Recover the amino acids of this structure.
């Protein structure tokens, strides 16, 4: 899976979890930029990502998944073969 594919799928998962249009989520979006991304929706984001990518984030990773770049880096770590 390429980094671009991860970006596209991450943006789609964020959009679905936050009930937003994917094109309204910038590449460097963070919880601070998106008002819909509150603590409740954070868990929805995490679950959507785990389901979409077939991965499981550790409890230690959960609070660090606060922006598109950080999420993409974490997914790359989990999907590296």
């Amino acid at each position: 899976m390429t980094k671009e594919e991860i970006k596209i799928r991450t943006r789609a998962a964020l959009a679905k979890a936050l009930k937003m249009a994917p094109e309204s989520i910038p590449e460097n979006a963070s919880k601070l930029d998106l008002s819909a991304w509150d603590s409740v929706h954070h868990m929805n984001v995490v679950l959507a990502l785990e389901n979409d990518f077939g991965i499981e984030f550790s409890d230690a990773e959960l609070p660090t998944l606060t922006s598109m770049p950080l999420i993409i880096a974490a997914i790359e770590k989990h999907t590296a073969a």
